[in-house]
C-alpha cells in the first residue's frame, strides 16, 4: 500500500529515535545473555556468525546456577501469578461491594469463558516466555492478536529486535521491532500487491529465492497523526519493508481499539523506557562464580595431571604417562619424568566459597520465595508453611503491582474486547447495560498472599482480646464484630457472595426483633389467660369467684 512521503519519513525518524534510546542498554543485555541465556539471545550481537556459534556452545558458563535460578524464578512467578491450573482473576463491578445473583453469575461466566480462551490458545506458553525475559532482562513483550482458530494468538518478540517508547504516564505505548521474514512469508501475510516487486517475484518463483530473508520493520503507536487509519482507533500498526519505505510503500496499516500487546518492566529508573531486573543484580555474582569454578577446576587438573619435568633423554621419545604405562630409556641415573611443581589447592575452602556465591545468586533471584517448602530443615505444619510463604511473597509486592498494571490488566482487557467483538460473551444483565465500569480482582496465589498479610494485625488483636477477656470481660465490647469478620474475610480472599450484605444483616436483625416481640406478646397473653382461669376458679363466697369480684371492684 502507498503512504504519503511525509508519513514515510516520520516512520523512519521514529525508528531511528527508538534505536538511539535503546543503545545504552544493548551491551548490558548482551553480557546478561552471555551468562544466563546464551542460546536464546544470540542475535544480541548483530549478525556476528562467529559469535552466534560460540554462544551456542555456552563459552561463558561453567556453572549453570544462574541459568537455573532465572528459570526457577520465572516458573515460580508463572505458578504464583497466572497459574493455568486455577483461576487467577475475576471481574468485579466498580463501586459495588455486593451485587445481585444475576450479575454475580454473569461475572463468573465471563471469567470462565475468558480463562477457557486463554487455556485453548498459546497464552500460557507465551506468558512463560514473558516471565523468563522479565526475570532475566527486566523487560519483556508479548503481542496479542485475534485468531481465526483459537480466538487469540500470542507472539513473543525477542529482546534485541524490539524497541520501547513511553507516553506521558511513563508506560509503554509505542512498540517497534526489526525482523527478518522470507519472501514467502511476506506474500502470504500481506499479499503480493503490498510487497515490493522483488519480494513478489521471489515468492512466485519459489525455490531458494522464496526462502531468502528480507528486513521488515513493525511499529505500534498511538493513533495521533494523520494516516490511512481512522481517527476513532486509539492505536495503529504499520509494517513496511526497510528497502521500500523511502519510496512511500508500506506492507499494511491498521487500527486497534486497545493496545495489542503487553510490555511489562520489572523495575524502572526515572524516565528509562526499559526496566532493570534481578538478573542484573546477580550478574557480578554469576561472573565471580564462573571464575571461581574455572580456577577450582584448574587446581584439580594440576593435581591430577600436573606439568612435568623430564630428562633430556626422553625428548622425542615415546612416553607412557597413563596408569600402567612403561617408558624405556638407556640405563643412566636420574632418568625419568616428575612433576615440575606440586600444589595442594584448598578445595574445601574453594567449594565453601562457591556455595556461598551460589546461595547469593539464588537469593537475589528470589528462589527462596518459590522453593521454600523443599528447603525447610524439618517438617512443618501447614499453617507455618503458609505463614512463611506469605511473609516471603510480600517482598514481591511492588513487582506484582507493576506487573498487574503493565501486563495482566492490559492482557485481560485485550482478551475481553476481542471476545466481546466476536460475540463470545454472554448478554449482560439489564442493570449493566448502561455501561457500568468493570474492574479486575486478582485471586492468584501471590495476590491472595499479598492481601492476607493485611489480616495479620487483626489476628494479633483478636489473640490479645482472647488472652485478657478472662480477667477483663468488658474488652469484648470494643470490636465491631460484624465489620471485623467481614473485613477479615475479604482480606484472606473469601468470595463476596459468601458474605452477607450489610442490608441483609439489618433486615435479618429487624425480622428477628419482630419475631421476639411477637413471641413475648404471645407469652404475656398466655400468662394473662392462665391467671384469669385461676381467678375464675377461685370461689370467694356468695355465689361469685375472684375474677368477678376483681372486675366489680374496677
Concise overview:
The protein has 554 residues and is an alpha+beta fold.
Ordered list of secondary-structure elements with their pairings:
Blueprint lengths: L4 H31 L13 H8 L8 H17 L7 E5 L7 H20 L2 H15 L4 E6 L3 E5 L6 E5 L5 E11 H8 L6 H9 L1 H5 L1 E10 L12 E7 L10 E5 L4 E2 L15 H27 L3 E3 L26 E3 L7 H18 L2 H4 L11 H12 L3 H25 L16 E5 L2 H9 L2 H13 L12 H11 L10 H35 L2 E3 L2 E2 H8 L1
Antiparallel strand pairs: 1-12, 2-3, 2-9, 4-5, 5-6, 6-7, 7-8, 10-11, 13-14
Largest sheet: 5 strands, antiparallel
Strand order of the largest sheet: 4-5-6-7-8
Query: What integer value in Å does the Rg equal?
Result: 37 Å
User: What low-confidence regions span 5 or more consecutive residues with pLDDT below 50?
Assistant: 46-53
Q: What oligomeric state do these chains adopt? A: single chain
Number of strands: 14
What value does the average pLDDT take?
Answer: 83
Give the strand content. 5-15%
The SS-based structural class is alpha+beta
Give the termini distance in whole angstroms: 109 Å
- Helical element count? 18
Helicity, as a percent range: 40-55%
Shape: flat
